[in-house]
Amino acid sequence: MLCLGSATLYSCKKYLDVTPENVGTIDYAFRNRNEAENYLFTCYNTLQGMSNVLNDPGFTTSAEIVYPNDLSERPINDIGFQLIRGTVQNVSSPALNVWDGGYFQAIRRCNIMLENIDKPIDLSEGEKAQWIAETKFLKAYYHFSLAKMYGPIPIYRVNQPVTAPIEEIRVKRQPVDSVFDYAVQLLDEAIPNLPTQIGNIQQELGRVTRLIALSVKAEILATQASPLFNGNPDYARFKNKDGQALFSQTADPAKWQRAAAACKAAIDEAAGLNMKLYTFIPPANLPAVNDSIRKVLTIQNAVTEKWDLNAELIWALNPTFGYQSYCIPRLTTKAVENSTAAAGSFTVPMFTTDLFYSDNGVPINEDKVWDYAHRFELRTGDNANRYYVKSGYTTIKNNFSREPRYYANIGFDGGVWFGNGVTDQNNPLYIEAKGPDSKAGPKDRVRINMLAIWPKKLVSYQTVFNEGVQQNAYRLPRMRLADLYLLYAECLNEASGPGPEVYQYIDLVRQRAGLKGVVESWAQYSFAPAKPTTKDGLREIIHRERRIELCFEAKAGWDLRRWKEMLTVLATPIQGWSIFQKTSENFYSLQTLFIPAMTVRDYFWPLSDGALSNNPNLVQTLYW
Description:
This is RagB/SusD family nutrient uptake outer membrane protein. The chain is mainly α.
């Protein structure tokens, strides 16, 4: 009891500390304000666990980053990365299974919180209203997270008593629209009583605010309006055992209007808080940087900046992103000598790099003046490009004349790397990746990047991997303003087609990246100058803008699903460079690592055999 009491007192001082499961009784857990708050933090526990990107299909199944499965030593749990190979998912033991236990247990905790919130005698009415709102948000988010993975799911409005008849406990799946509507209902109930801002940033950052809830509501409604859920003929046969249809077969355009309104409400809330797109301002200890490097750091730091210093960050989760060592190449001789410094093994396929525009702000294969046909020819870095490509280093034309987001996101052979302890803009570090003798080249079966391309954006410029390690920790954004702007543009275009407001919010993101407006760029440089003026053309542009701007941020895996574009994108071979070759001519020969093997069944997760056995009223996910 003394230990438990000490832990309870200490928990208020830690970032969303939680109580171990199954400790004490319900009455004890709600005997006073402090104990009840500790139980509230336990309701947050599953949410914080979502911050591990290895368990997030949005990160591992987009193929923005791949991790090889043929290494003799794999120090991380890589099953999420292997899903796109089509070999690990099954019904006996589903990969990344959150149905059996996980998220439904979290919903049960939320219900317990709501059922017992009146018990603490020293809880003020204001705090009580806020805690109820936080709990309803969490309950909504857990239902939404399950629906993204499994489609139709049971809805747990209240916990059933243990004495309930067995048929009441054996609930069935509910139609996807019912699930989304219930999640939105919970958010609407929660939003009025959530705080506008977190007052005590040191102790409570991460607790839900009104803006977070408004942004999640927009995300839920946009997901509900998207083709995967809104009139999807692929799931016409997905029904409960009593014949109840679980997917509507008629697309409802009004869903996009609801989603657009929700996006605008969140944007207005952010504006009221003086939030804006992040711009890098050099700290006092950093020498002056030129415009080229400043643009790169602006794009990188929109993700890696500390939460309290980032005016764009709406929501992130604890703990911090734990895989910078997998995203950084070895840049120095000392890093090579330190066998534990950086594995650098998260690798980026060529088709991900191809997403990024030319410096004219249009796709490289659409640009009238960019030499797409000869992009793999050798070219040596020169003085004009020295802030992006090492001067005098032989690379390929593909790495020249690209938009700033390319240089902020992609680490490539010959690419400049500002940071890792070197902030001299005139003599920065750069990547040497040709062959095993190069610094970033393959060293063993752990320190190897199978395509010689790195996800640079996920490494803070202040992080250092040399003979020692100094990581500048950050929390990967769950939602930031650029995401919300592009989501609003998407919803507006789907609801009513191209228009000034659609262009406005796309262009805000593009301008921060140093590009001209979408209409101007296509009119001036693209082979398809009218593309942004049509609904279909602008849809394609917006989807690409999201994939570029939010690259590596655990968004694309979900976006590609809701757009029903996953199978098309993942039909592309995973290719990169011939990493064991030492000469430029041989190194820059495309190799295929593997070809993804995804089918329509992979849009949703299967239920385990055990789940179906325990509850005969459940139906298996269609196609499994």
